[in-house]
Design a protein that fits this description.
Layout lengths: L1 E2 L5 E3 L8 E6 L12 H4 L3 E6 L16 H9 L2 H6 L2 E6 L1 H15 L6 E5 L17 H11 L4 H4 L2 H20 L12 E6 L7 H5 L9 E6 L5 H4 L1 H17 L9
Amino acid sequence: MIFGKNKSLACFSANPAAQYRVICFPCAGGGASMYRKWSDFLPDAEVWAANYPGRESLHGMPFSESVADILALFTAQSDFFAGKPFVLYGHSFGAVVAYQLAATLQQAGIRDLGICVSARRAPHLEPELKLADLSEEEFLRELERLGGLPDAIRSNQEMMDFYLPVIKADLALNDEALSDPAQSISTPIYLYSATEDKVANPNELAAWKNATTSRFEHKVFEGGHFFIQDSVTEFMASLRSVLATLTQSDDEELIAF
């Protein structure tokens, strides 16, 4: 495994011959290891994954107090992003981190090929319910209802005790992570969602189209919040198709998504 200069970015399987990178941002409570196996499915890319403070390679750092603090870890590595074409991917909370990073980098003249996001409302919309404001009992009950806890964590009390503070810290940021409604990026957005995911409703998902002046596509899978893991083969086939388009075609070409 190799790291970026401040250990906020990790690569589990180096692929220096790859012509582009896919840089992945985890959900609330998650870390870079969420994407450990992605290089097996994306042989044409070099896959990098982000860590947020308070976990994995950044376990010694306190939790971030804002999404801006998280973004600063990545914008401090502008040479990395300028070094090779890249696509950003984010799941749930990671979707808004990926989007806001794309917007920040574009303002600095560093343009991604496109972003892929999943399982989150559009970045300029307020949440219907701020989970981080709930009591612990209400918080757990709502997480269960939304399907926002992976089975491996939910079934293990020791893991619950470890991860719940991390999840709650990230969800507090997710609640407050609002983009300017007038802001948009200039590169394509590909959105993935699932039929049984209660975290975002159809209107909240459709509003992603307002976050770009370029192409917007939306694909729906069967399943719940963690459909990217439960339907990994089908999901990765779709993602490979999108990546092929973003890396080989110009922005005006449409594909069947």
